[in-house]
Amino acid sequence: MLKNFWYAVEFAHVVDSRPRRITCLGQDFVIWRKRDGSVACLSDLCVHRGGALSMGKVVEDRVVCPYHGWEYESDGACMKIPANPPGRGIPKKARVDAYPVVEKYGMVWAFLGDLPEEERPPIPHIPQHDDPRYRAVYWETVLEANYERALENVVDAAHTPFVHGSAFGDPGRPEIPDYEVTETEWHAEADVQFSPPPAPGIWGMLYRTKERQPVVVSNGWYLPNIVKLHVRLPFGDLILYDHNIPLNRDRTLVKIVGYRTFYTGKWADASAAKRIGKIFEQDRPIVENQRPELLPFDLSAELHIRSDALQVSYRRRRQQLIDRGWWIGEDDDANSAAARREATVIPSPARRDNPELARAWVHKPRGENTDEPARRAE
Ligand code: FES
Ligand SMILES: [Fe+2]
User: Fold this and answer.
1) How many Å separate Cα 178 from the centre of its chain?
2) Residues lining ligand 2 (ion), CB within 5 A?
3) How are the residues of the chain apportioned to helix, strand and coil, as percentages rounded to the nearest 5?
4) What is the residue extent of each domain of the chain?
5) For the CA of 81, the nearest atom of ligand 1
6) What separation, in Å, do the N-terminal and C-terminal C-alpha atoms of the chain show?
7) 112 Cβ partners below 8 Å, 6+ apart?
8) Which top CATH class is 127-295?
9) Whose CA is nearest to atom 3 of ligand 1?
10) CA of 69 to the centre of ligand 1 (A)
């Protein structure tokens, strides 16, 4: 799992002024909407006795711990300790990690890492979101599989005729012509040609193409966990962005935003979401049963062919970021079944701004003094 990225952690329309627990990278966070409309994100770990702040309440934009009522500002500073008599100061160390948040493309994005603003990788550009020709629909599920297996599955063109039948291509003609991968620093994509479906498939009566043109699907990944699938149907375009949110290394919260140019009325949202779900459920048993469960670090540990080029480019780029120290060790996972004696957190930007405070901080950053797989792999 990679730190130092913006993660879309929740659909914006479900976030309100109540504290809400979200999980990502094997750690819990609390988010809530403030009175000015902005969203705050803190580590869900009270510095006093480790109470879950998300189980408390929000009073005047501060989250209040449910255990002894300590109050935290959205910058992570504790402002009130009710058990202290009036006049007693608040220790400087009484603060929790706060993470930068932006709201964009219908999602709440939290920056989970400690990079200063100018060094942070960008949020991918999603041009469809503000384009009136498109209608967005939102769908989510929990997958009992590693998020990288989930991500690779979507950029894997060759599985479609086997797992999805004639939904996008012709199972009788499963070959994938060589395609070219376009890469930038943070993403890669390709146009992949399929033989056209032999029958109308799931799109029913709407299939009207006279000539059997190849079906072109644009496919791509954006670091750290987003995949795009652009399907051109005879009657319009469907563009899916899947956010594969690593709850921990074994479980993935998949949040999908689907944009379509056809049937753009609200009345068609439910059936559009249902179609997304139907396709996803065809993938689920395959991905949940892949072994090894985790993506190998060594490229030669699995066999790749030409049609796997998008996956290979993902694995190569991932390795560069592991070498840069962005990998979060799986051995230190708050959501694993094993009880721990020390709670650690994803380091937030404030730790870099104030190294002295960071050293004294109660909760230590993830990966410190642990034998991370990244280091083991070297
Ligand atoms: S554990 Fe949060 S106030 Fe005591
Ligand atoms: Fe699939």
Assistant:
1) 29
2) 283
3) 25, 30, 45
4) 5-119, 127-295
5) 3
6) 17
7) 3, 4, 5, 6, 7, 24, 25, 99, 346
8) alpha beta
9) 68
10) 6
State if residue 70 touches ligand 1 by the CB under 6 angstroms criterion. yes
Decide: pTM greater than 0.85: yes
| DSSP secondary structure string for all residues of 214-242 | PEEEEEEEETTTEEEEEEEETTEEEEEEE
Please determine whether the domains at 5-119 and 127-295 fall in the same fold group of CATH: no
Nearest to 5 by CA among 124, 121, 151: 121
Ligand 2: centre distance to CA 280 (Å): 6
pLDDT digits (tens, 9 = 90+) for 335-368: 777 788 888 899 999 999 988 888 889 999 887 6
DSSP 173-227: -------PPEE-SSEEEEEEEEPPPSS-GGGGGG---SS-PPEEEEEEEETTTEE
Q: Is the minimum distance from the CB of 65 to ligand 1 under 6 angstroms?
A: yes
Name the superfamily (CATH) of residues 5-119.
Rieske [2Fe-2S] iron-sulphur domain (2.102.10.10)
Question: What's the pLDDT at 211?
Answer: 58
Dump strand ranges (E) for the chain: 5-11, 20-24, 27-33, 39-43, 57-59, 62-64, 71-72, 78-80, 101-104, 107-112, 135-143, 182-183, 187-194, 215-222, 226-233, 236-246, 252-260, 344-345, 364-365
Under the banding of pLDDT at 50, 70 and 90, the label for residue 167 is confident
**Antiparallel, parallel or unpaired: β 107-112 and 101-104:** antiparallel
**CA–CA separation, 143 vs 106, rounded Å?**
22
